[in-house]
Amino acid sequence: MARREETARESSNGPLDGLLVIALEQAVAAPFCTMRLADAGARVIKLERPEGDFGRGYDDVARGQSSYFVWLNRGKESITMDLKQSDDRALFDALLEKADIFIQNLKPGALDRMGYPVDALCQRYPGLIGCSINGYGESGPMAHRKAYDLLVQAESGLASITGGPAEAARVGFSIVDIATGAVATQAILEALYGRTKTGRGTHIRLSMFDTIVEWMAVPFLHAAHGHPPKRIGLAHPSIAPYGVFTSKDGKAILISIQNEREWIALCDQVLQDKTLLADPRFSSNVTRVRNRGETDARVGANFARFDSADLVNSLSSAEIAFAFVNEITDLVTHAQLHTVPISTPNGPIDVPAPAPSWDGEARSYGPVPALGEHTSDVRREFLGYPSSKSDLTSGVLAGAAAGSATKNSARRQHEGSSE
């Protein structure tokens, strides 16, 4: 495991520095998108209901905080807001007037009923880029149905092609939410580039269902042409051999054969069984898939003749892709793992590092906000005054305490100490 050189951010940096993002968001999909924007330097103001984004309560494993919230909300400012209150509506209007991007993932129609249809907001503020995320789109028979990640995995058929032969399974993390957040980020960046040419924003609409169905194009095409893929666990429905085989000393190793050169090298250099090359049942990937049972049985029998150390050496020499079948606990100490430190109200936490890196740029990542930590400051900045007497007292004190804890933990983290 290695830490990237990035450290906790005290001020904004990055290519999106200067952009203001207003996020009326909850759970995972929209927060993933705005986390990416914050990572790139945008100022993200997160609007939370008085009781907070319900993602704050998903678990308490990260120093007593939600792992979801800690991961997805670094670098944002948190303010609490109730759009039924006139003072909060005034603040919402003031924020939107200066915003570059407005993203929301409320239930379809919720903002319309509050008097804030996103289409109208984009007309009122021509430079605004709006992004609305929902479950099943804005039209069609399921448009107003609530949607969460696992529900969409089931409804889309993703669960039907995941797992082993006996039972469908959930992908082991919130893949639909994360995919949707990633696509939203891409669409927003496209809209920002478009705005540099036209001066105008746009309203981006995307659904969780549409997002994951697009990502499922290959199994969709198989099914649409009469060959729906079957669940085969740690194997590949279109390629063979591509699966797990056990060594003489009991190690499970997953190998992948992508072309005929690799098949020849596997038989000759690794399995040391050239008779496989003469068998017409294994003469191409198509025939190996058609005869998958025989293919896997022959490969498995040869695999079991060698210890794992010898297999690793021969697979590496033959330039054949392979992997050990690790547990998630193995990932925590994996030699290839990179993490970055994030400051939270309860102390610093290492999280997996974002995948991209840039030459000559050491990215830094802001702290995770306490609920409502920035409410008073944002109201003063955008309205010129706190919205209520209670905000002057309890809100300021709570925000100051949370801010002090966050700054202290960020300072300790920067100095290399830990709790």
Structural commentary:
With 419 residues, the chain is an alpha/beta fold. The protein has 2 domains: 2-216 and 334-414, Crotonobetainyl-coa:carnitine coa-transferase, domain 1 (Rossmann fold, 3-Layer(aba) Sandwich), CATH 3.40.50; 236-324, 2-Layer Sandwich (formyl-coa transferase, domain 3), CATH 3.30.1540. The chain has 17 helices and 15 strands. The chain has helices spanning 29-39, 67-72, 86-98, 110-113, 118-124, 149-156, 175-198, 208-215, 217-224, 260-270, 275-278, 285-290, 292-303, 308-317, 328-332, 375-383, 389-414, and strands at residues 2-3, 20-24, 43-48, 76-80, 101-104, 129-134, 163-164, 167-168, 202-207, 235-236, 239-246, 252-256, 321-324, 338-342, 349-352. The strands form 4 sheets. A 6-stranded parallel β-sheet has the order 4-3-2-5-6-9, with helices on both faces. β14 and β15 (349-352) form a beta hairpin.
Tell me the number of helical segments per DSSP (H or I, 4 or more residues long): 17
Oligomer: single chain
Query: Class of the largest domain in CATH?
Result: Alpha Beta
Can you tell me the CATH topology of the largest domain?
A: Rossmann fold
Across the major sheet, the strand order is: 4-3-2-5-6-9
Mean pLDDT: 89
Strand content: 15-25%
Task: Supply the CATH superfamily name of the largest domain.
Answer: Crotonobetainyl-coa:carnitine coa-transferase, domain 1
Summarize the main sheet.
Answer: 6 strands, parallel
User: Got a strand count?
Assistant: 15
Count of all domains:
2
End-to-end separation in angstroms reads: 20 Å
The secondary-structure class comes to: alpha/beta
What's the Cα radius of gyration? 26 Å
Which architecture of the largest domain per CATH?
A: 3-Layer(aba) Sandwich
Q: In percent, how helical is the residue content? A: 40-55%
Instruction: Give the overall shape.
Output: elongated
Which residues sit in consecutive blocks of at least 5 with pLDDT less than 50? Answer: 5-11, 392-419
